[in-house]
Amino acid sequence: MSVSNSALTLASSQYRQIAKAVNEERLINTATRLMSVHSPTGQCGEVADLLAELLSDEGFQVQRIEANHSAAPAVIVRHVGRNPGRCLQFEGHLDTVHLPFVPPAQVDGRLTGTGAADMKAGIAAAVEALRVIRELDLLTHGSVLLTAHDLHESPWGDGRQLNSMIEAGLHGDGVLIPEYFQDFLPIVGRGGLIWRVALHRAGENVHEVMRPNEPGVVLAASELIQRLSKWDREIGIARDPLAGPGSVFVGQIHAGELYNQFPTTATLEGTCRWLPGVTSASVEQRFSQILSALANEYSITGEVQFSPMRDAFRLDPNDDLTVAFQSVIMRDSGRNLTHGAKPFVDDGNAFWALAGIPAITHGPIAGGAHTLEEWVQIDSLVCVARRYACTAVQYCNL
Ligand SMILES: [Zn+2]
Fold first, then answer.
1. What is the pTM of this model?
2. What is the CA(15)–ligand 1 centre distance, in A?
3. Ligand 1 centre and the CA of 303: distance in Å?
4. Considering 118, 215, 291, 377, which has the largest number of Cβ atoms within 10 A of its Cβ?
5. pLDDT in tens, 261-291
6. Is the pLDDT of residue 339 over 70?
7. Is 181 within 8 Å of 384 (Cβ atoms)?
């Protein structure tokens, strides 16, 4: 089935009806309430309870699922249309990065505070879309699934809660994710992991004039950096036209306590990123091989820990979800979104990697994510709510 059939195109009257029904005040109120509860990654119990209560007070059937994280069961709402059909999922994470809490405020057409950009206000826009879909009884077919969860932000979370929901089959046929991003349509994204290496030599920290006749961990660390950058150059040969190459990046190195101490330990941290078609397992394996060869040559031990971010992803521009979404964007803005690469990893990657489900990241105009100065533009939240409701009509009423 293809949504290019003109009979399925969103009618102008329906578009106007949706635009009128999106209630800015109600949307801001929801965003502000969610942002009033501090919910650093791993500690979303209270805000998830609040969202669940807010939705059930409005008459939605709310389900809670632990999904590998009993401290904050995920919030799930399903709104079902009049006939069977496809399910469009609105998906968001309720957790915020571990920075001091900034309470919500409204300044010059913007909402500011923790979670304004990343991404409680985006979730509020999805909630508003769901309300409009129900109020206007828009779904002749299919359903809309709203999910909100914890454990998104690295390195405090590892995506475990959402992953287990996806693996249990709890997902839509297509997904919209209201992260702070709307300049273009991300159709490819690199996967990523954080690595942490510890190099140890036998013995104790000693004055450098007393050191044994061996290269030590600082030289070993420097050689490791050389070998990782050689690998980085090899990876760089294969480039995706939009996402560029995979990479191996070293961001931190620490060793010793004093300029003239011969230390026992050196630690290094960085990231690996890869293109669709490469697996995290193969990246981890290659990394471990490089490290163990080096450790043997330098007569030291090398330990590595990997913290997964997300796998790589690719979105089919001809998928029904993408086509439906682009037609909504065309109706709403008079243009199609151009294709691009997603600069960060987000939950869309998990849907593609674990279940082959198309997911589109499209959210409000916002900034300051992962800082103390988060903001989101209020009129763009209204726009996201409108676009999400319209996409449900385009995608589900098939
Ligand atoms: Zn986010």
1. 0.88
2. 28
3. 30
4. 118
5. 999 999 999 999 999 999 999 999 999 999 9
6. yes
7. no
Burial pattern 156-168, b for ≥16 Cβ within 10 A else e, equals: bbbbbbbbbbbee
Q: Residue 198: which pLDDT band, with cuts at 50, 70 and 90?
A: very high
Question: Phi and psi of 65, rounded to 5°?
Answer: -130, 125
Q: Are 341 and 189 in contact (CB under 8 A)?
A: yes
- CA-nearest of 368, 363, 391 to 121 is 363
Q: Amino acid letter at 197?
A: V
Coil vs helix vs strand at 68: coil
- Residue 343 Cα to ligand 1 middle (Å): 12
Domains of the chain: 6-189+312-396 (3.40.630.10), 191-310 (3.30.70.360)
CA of 119 to the centre of ligand 1 (A): 5
Nearest CA among 195, 342, 373 for reference residue 276: 342
Q: How many CA atoms lie within 13 A of 198 on its CB side?
A: 5
CA distance 73 to 170: 14
